Amino acid sequence: MRDVGMVMPVYNQDPLYLTLAMNSVLEQSYPHFHLAVVIDGANEQTRNQVYQYEKRKTRELRLLTSRPTRGFPVRLIQDLIF
């Protein structure tokens, strides 16, 4: 089976929508995937909510964080390509 990589950019999301999006990805039946959550200068509430998912470690999850906001394309280039 092939691995699938997904990138989820996050910036000050409504807690409900962030929960729905994270659960949608992490509850997939396909077992061979990696999720990179890019937190680009998000507020404390958003960062804490994503960190709660990291603590569970139910799936392959990588968090990429930065302060201040540099923009998703910059974070993608810096953290995933190099």
From TrEMBL:
<dbReference type="Pfam" id="PF00535">
    <property type="entry name" value="Glycos_transf_2"/>
</dbReference>
<feature type="domain" description="Glycosyltransferase 2-like">
    <location>
        <begin position="7"/>
        <end position="64"/>
    </location>
</feature>
<dbReference type="InterPro" id="IPR029044">
    <property type="entry name" value="Nucleotide-diphossugar_trans"/>
</dbReference>
<protein>
    <recommendedName>
        <fullName>Glycosyltransferase 2-like domain-containing protein</fullName>
    </recommendedName>
</protein>
<dbReference type="InterPro" id="IPR001173">
    <property type="entry name" value="Glyco_trans_2-like"/>
</dbReference>
